Amino acid sequence: MSSEANAVWNECLRVIKQHVNEQSFSTWFKPINPVRLEGSTLTIQVPSQFFYEWLEDNYVQVLKLAIKSTLGPNGRLEYAVVVDKGNSQNQPYVVSFPQGNSASSPKKSNTALAESKSPFDMQSLDSEMLLQSNLNPNYTFSTYIEGDCNRLARSAGFAVATKPGVTSFNPLMVYGGVGLGKTHLVQAIGNEIKNGPDDKFVLYVSSEKFVNQFMDAIKDGNVKSFTNFYMQVDVLIIDDIQFLAGKDRTQEMFFHIFNHLHQNKKQIIMTSDCPPKDLKGLEERLLSRFKWGLTADLQMPDFETRVAIIRRKMQSEGIFIPDDVVEYLAYTVDTNVRELEGVLISLIAHASLNRVDIDLTLAKTIMKNIVKDIENEVGIDFIQKTVSEYFDIKTEDLKAKTRKKEIVTARQVAMYFSKEFTNHSLKSIGYHFGGRDHSTVIHAVQTVNDLMDTDTAFRNSVNDLKKKFKMRSY
């Protein structure tokens, strides 16, 4: 930029600052860059077409005042607008807008400044939400159990909470199945930022609520207030972004909000039930932006993480629970955190109402009423199902003729446990594994024992499975 253009624009900013509030000044004028000064015409660059239109609709009078005060009665203002081409490379091009509808032409007859009031100053947009972050104070990093299933997402989240908008994790997209802790993690980030020293405004909103607010804003003719509100947020956390699918007008609005926040180094955090590449019904230009930062997944918690969750929950409730009950629950409920917490609540309720101690018998009784597929005995079918899931193969492969190494190993492990945990004869066990004879079962058992003596990782896998079967056979 030329030094003359820079000097003129700084003087314009001095005038503008006297007529707009601090939040509006930071949102709508700080991002502007002066480009050149030719005679009495100042050209400024704004980050988007939407940004240009917003200035023209809401701040034309204050811009006109600033230009006239600085460049005199013949002063004019032109815009160089960065226009997004929608490509994944994020390479914009610039289009110049002359004075046709610019701040230099008498577009509006009002003599008063036409500054658009911010929803920070007025109660027009969902008043219950104004300046409220909508965060659950119980969702913090201290209550979020870390494990292999969530370590990357948690580490990235903490980095974002420490330096929102500054790290390369912007946006941060956290995805995973139901009940795996997405909402807990992103709200923990929000609470950490909100309680930090920088006095940032953090807003958590579900995509469903975002859509409903936008629809209400259209109906009430209040879209400007809606937009201005979201563009002044420091940290935007939007949950279940996949629900924007198919809602074209809402996606268009979110696109502009996203661009504005990102260009102004405001932090954007989103959750989804799948990675961006699998999201359907969203515009490509949105999906490309979701990939700018970091995408981290949450997986089903492993056994150790489930144990830690149970113990932390019981500790917070001031309730003692025996180790054998902890292990039983951790092995039995292996789906998601939400279901596990539901089981714990039910267990606590039954113990309290019936005035009994929490023990394995009570836990098994509770589980029978909650988990439909729980088994009282360990049978060959259950062993085959459990082993195949553990080794990530099909149950049918255990009975097939294939000699692939990974399948042979899984088959031998399943035979080993069938001998240890069932009363079936060697011949019967072989029959259940595709009609194999008893000598194959004997060889499988011996092979597993030998590998356990020489291979630590294999021994740990077998012991892990053994605990699961023991829990079922109690």
TrEMBL record:
List where in the cell it is found.
Cytoplasm
Renumbered to this chain, region (Domain I, interacts with DnaA modulators) spans 1-88
The UniProt annotation puts the region (Domain IV, binds dsDNA) at 352-474
| GO annotations of cellular component type | cytoplasm; plasma membrane
Q: Name one GO molecular function term.
A: DNA replication origin binding
Pfam families cross-referenced by the UniProt entry:
Bac_DnaA, Bac_DnaA_C, DnaA_N
Specify which residues bind ATP according to the UniProt entry for this protein: 179, 181-183
Entry keyword set: ATP-binding, Cytoplasm, DNA replication, DNA-binding, Lipid-binding, Nucleotide-binding
- Chromosomal replication initiator DnaA C-terminal domain residues are 379-448
* UniProt domain AAA+ ATPase: residue ranges: 168-298
**Mainly resides where?**
cytoplasm
Which SUPFAM superfamilies is this protein grouped with?
Answer: P-loop containing nucleoside triphosphate hydrolases, TrpR-like
Q: GO biological process annotations for this chain's record?
A: DNA replication initiation; regulation of DNA replication
Physiological role = Plays an essential role in the initiation and regulation of chromosomal replication. ATP-DnaA binds to the origin of replication (oriC) to initiate formation of the DNA replication initiation complex once per cell cycle. Binds the DnaA box (a 9 base pair repeat at the origin) and separates the double-stranded (ds)DNA. Forms a right-handed helical filament on oriC DNA; dsDNA binds to the exterior of the filament while single-stranded (ss)DNA is stabiized in the filament's interior.
User: How does the entry describe the domains?
Assistant: Domain I is involved in oligomerization and binding regulators, domain II is flexibile and of varying length in different bacteria, domain III forms the AAA+ region, while domain IV binds dsDNA.
Which family is annotated? Answer: Belongs to the DnaA family.
Q: Which PANTHER family is this protein grouped with? A: CHROMOSOMAL REPLICATION INITIATOR PROTEIN DNAA (PTHR30050)
How it assembles, according to the record, is:
Oligomerizes as a right-handed, spiral filament on DNA at oriC.
Please report the name of this protein according to its UniProt entry. Chromosomal replication initiator protein DnaA
